[in-house]
Design a protein that fits this description.
It contains 15 helices and 11 strands. It is an alpha/beta fold and about 350 residues long. It starts with 7 loop residues before the first helix and ends with a strand. The relative contact order is 0.13.
Length: about 350
């Protein structure tokens, strides 16, 4: 029996190697596929494109192209904070002359950008938001978004000189703040342990500068026999939520999404249509609460209404403001991609689509 005492160690190492190989193979299959717009048919069905449309997350332009091809009279305002996305928008504007206006900036930049093009309140016929990172960003190692591709730990959607990168954040953040970033932005169960590991690494040996270094460090914080799977039951790297949290923090994504929803209500015409696609619960919660009217001081309420205390004495005006919504939902339940689409484009597996019409 003694000679079998440590047999679990080589078996664990073999299992880990097999898991890593499977993960790399799956991600390579995704990368090799061209950019595919998520739920394209559903977007066209609910958006009913006509007139002036804001594509607030242009990316590679898959949705915008479909809109332009489906409606020969509509025009697209192609907004993207990534300069590469703007290059794609400029190429599309040459293909559809006079129908595409590239706008580089964030949702919070819209008032200035619209003023430059004399676009006023209540002037848009439709708004589309496809939140999250684009395939281009995940597939480019130098951008620092991907776990499977080793590159600098950047994660900025707008690589502006002087703006802090993910590496800068990890080099200066306190342990408590890092714990909160991982817990609330990544919904990471092991946030405390990972935060402690990153801070200890910073003081013991060196600053984390590459995606591979961060992924390996996070993996070392997990037990060897922990194997995570995604919604398709495929191998998922244990650092996925850590990367998500840092990306959200570096790019201030949730605040920008909240601002984007405010801008949609401000610039859409009455009866104008809003379509959103989200990829995790943090994004979807903000969208859902704006549409349902659960908003306080132009910000999505941090608590759902069902958790609000019934013993509180609240003025009628405050109650009316909290329950009053600019939107009417166009469907009863959240819309998910069809099984065949998930088969063809695994990156759509987490997508949730919501559509609403502006009523006031």
């Amino acid at each position: 029996m003694y000679r079998f005492k440590n047999i679990h160690r080589p078996l664990a190492q073999f299992s880990q190697s097999l898991r890593n190989f499977a993960l790399e193979s799956v991600e390579k299959l995704e990368v090799d596929k061209p950019h595919i717009p998520v739920m394209k048919d559903e977007v066209l069905s609910y958006l009913k494109p006509t007139g002036l449309i804001l594509d607030g997350t242009f990316g590679a332009g898959g949705h915008s192209r479909a809109i332009l091809e489906s409606s020969p009279t509509c025009k697209i305002l192609a907004l993207d904070r990534d300069p590469i996305g703007i290059q794609y928008a400029e190429e599309l504007s040459k293909e559809f002359p006079g129908r595409v206006i590239p706008l580089q900036g964030k949702f919070s930049d819209l008032p200035v950008l619209f003023q430059q093009h004399n676009i006023k309140r209540n002037s848009l016929d439709g708004v589309l938001f496809d939140f999250g990172c684009s395939s281009m960003q995940f597939d480019t190692a130098d951008r620092g978004f991907s776990i499977s591709k080793n590159g600098p730990l950047d994660m900025r959607m707008t690589p502006t000189p002087g703006e802090p990168t993910a590496a800068d954040v990890l080099a200066s953040v306190t342990e408590e703040d890092l714990y909160k970033i991982l817990k609330y932005y990544g919904e990471e169960k092991h946030a405390r342990k990972i935060a402690r590991g990153i801070i200890e690494a910073r003081y013991l040996f060196k600053r984390l500068t590459t995606t591979e270094e961060l992924a390996d460090l996070v993996q070392s914080c997990y037990a060897e026999d922990v194997y995570l799977k995604d919604k398709l039951q495929r191998p998922s790297h244990v650092a996925t939520k850590t990367f998500q949290a840092l990306r959200i923090f570096v790019n201030n994504e949730l605040n920008e999404i909240n601002y984007g929803m405010i801008m949609a209500a401000h610039y859409l015409k009455i009866a104008g249509r809003l379509v959103t696609i989200t990829f995790h619960s943090l994004e979807d919660t903000i969208v859902k609460r704006h549409i349902s009217g659960n908003v306080v001081a132009n910000t999505a309420n941090p608590l759902p209404l069902k958790y609000m205390s019934s013993t509180l004495q609240i003025d009628d005006e405050v109650v009316q403001e909290a329950m009053d919504s600019n939107w009417k939902m166009l469907h009863k339940h959240v819309i998910l991609p069809e099984f065949q689409e998930v088969e063809d484009n695994p990156r759509s597996r987490s997508a949730k689509m919501r559509a609403a019409v502006k009523i006031q």
